[in-house]
Amino acid sequence: MRLVDYLDKGASLGPDAACLRAGDRVMSYRQVQQLSDEVARALIGSGIAPGDSVAILSSNDPVAFSCVFGISRAGGVWCPINPRNEARENRQLLELMGCRALLFQRAYADLVAQILPDLPELTVVVCLDADGDPPAGALDFARWTADAPAAQRTDGGWVTVDPVDDVAMIVGTGGTTGVPKGVRLSGRNLETMSSIVLMCYPFPFGHGRPVYLALAPLTHAAGVLAFPVLTLGGEIVIMAHPDIGEFLHLIEEHRVTHTMLPPTLLYMALAHPDIDTVDTSSLQCFWYGSAPMSAAKLEQALVRFGPVMAQYFGQTEAPMVATTMGPADHYRPDGSIATERLASAGRAAPVVTLAIMDDEGRQQPSGERGEIVLRSSLVMEGYHNNPAATAEASAFGWHHTGDIGYLDEDGFLFIVDRAKDMIITGGFNVYSTEVEQAVMEHPDVQDCAVFGVPDEKWGERVTAVVQPRAGATIDTAELHTFVRARVGGVKAPKEYFLWSDLPRSKVGKVLKRDIRESVLGGV
Fold first, then answer.
1. How far apart are the first and last CA of the chain?
2. What are 355-385's pLDDT values in tens digits?
3. In the chain, what are the domains?
4. Fewer CB within 10 Å, N or C, the chain?
5. Confidence (pTM)
6. Contact 461, 425 (CB under 8 A)
């Protein structure tokens, strides 16, 4: 399927049903289709050919998301650009992806002005909401679409493309650790992802339309999770800016059935003063993922939201659902919470083969730790114009995630760390995620980051930076005793820092690297 096929499938179930909602603005499926037609004609009229890369730089917005389907109708490749990135990284991504066109919101005009120089391939620059004269060098979206030449659409699109093997989107990754890479995702990759989502999580097939609330950036997981919802004629409620209080009240107001939060934002939701007064009984599936989840906080979420929590584990290169853990997997047969399983990332999805591998390419038995590798039509086509990185990620015929984990006897995956985050202290391997889980069990801890710092005696010293829960006071000596009782003296942090807040990425992940550098800078 092409990306636009998800929209058209939903429209076939009722073109006048609500498709995209943001505040008081509601766009029906028919209206989103019409706008996507206009965008496709304008792109073709501007010289954009099938296979050309088209970038969108926008916060969560129904018009911007509608443009994704226009790019697909024109046979283009969607390149989501995160407005929270630094200008240098976005400029690198546009150059790497060879973007021919850029559609952006006026709020990011200054950012666009910084990244446009020396990008000769970028010939079409359009302001989505000019509200008067567009910024210098940009076209006005309304005029650009109105002036597009007439054309005849056939079979759902304006051009002929391969809905399976053609690249549908290129997603930037790795920018925080060096030069970013572009992940090439084909129609097959995204169709596999959507099929897994529909197979493995609860949906109201034949019993009403799902309502999906998107707080997280549509440039990331929140965007691709919208595609399977659209196939069922569902409604996407879009939040332009993250606000946990509004998020909770929107669930009640719109009877939201599906939503997703990264762990740090889920922790904030659980701590929000309105958490016990809003009605969240409409929820059928509350996804969490994109970063390790505290088992203690997850248990709180299960108690508060009920049997609706659903985990996913994947990465940009194998989008979203390499493993799945549906609501039922969080419970034992007798209905009690399966606390022994809450630190798991679930089991391999139905069309994913997963293994644990050592450095020599040997698969490891249950319980043994090694790198998590997988095979599936979910796995990317490769890194854009980077065959060396593609080959490295595909060693031994498996996709290498860079994550360290193990499988239990029931096939549940437990992720213990990123390979690069492993701490070697006193000759012992310590996986920071395991220690973070222990720290997060403390009732006064809101969030934390565990990492190693150089130490003359131990080689590396296990160190924790802790964010206390709002209004709480933490005694670090008491916290150390608490953690040591759970993971032992070798793994327990030798040093604790208390910070009122932790720096986070554009998608809510704790920036452990930045925290470590800050701590080292203060030593």
1. 54
2. 999 989 999 999 999 999 999 999 999 999 9
3. 28-186 (3.40.50.12780), 189-388+401-418 (3.40.50.12780), 422-522 (3.30.300.30)
4. C
5. 0.84
6. yes
Report the pLDDT value the prediction gives residue 89, as an integer from 0 to 100: 80
Q: Name the helix (H) or strand (E) containing 93.
A: helix 87-97
Those residues with Cβ within 8 angstroms of residue 521's Cβ, 6 or more apart along the chain or in another chain: none
The one-letter code for the residue type at 272 is H
Tokens (6 digits) for 362: 């040997």
Report strand pairing: 353-357 vs 347-348.
unpaired
Could you identify the residue written with the tokens 């760390």? 417
Q: Give the Cα separation of 368 and 344 in Å (integer).
A: 15
pLDDT digits (tens, 9 = 90+) for 480-523: 999 998 888 888 999 999 999 999 876 678 888 899 989 988 75
| Residue at 521: amino acid letter | G
Q: What is the mean pLDDT of residues 62-76?
A: 96
Runs of H (alpha helix) within 306-369:
none
Exposure string over 368-377, b if 16+ CB within 10 A, otherwise e: ebbbbbbbbe
**With bands split at pLDDT 50, 70 and 90, how would you rate the model's confidence at 137?**
confident
Tokens linked to 399: 């996709």
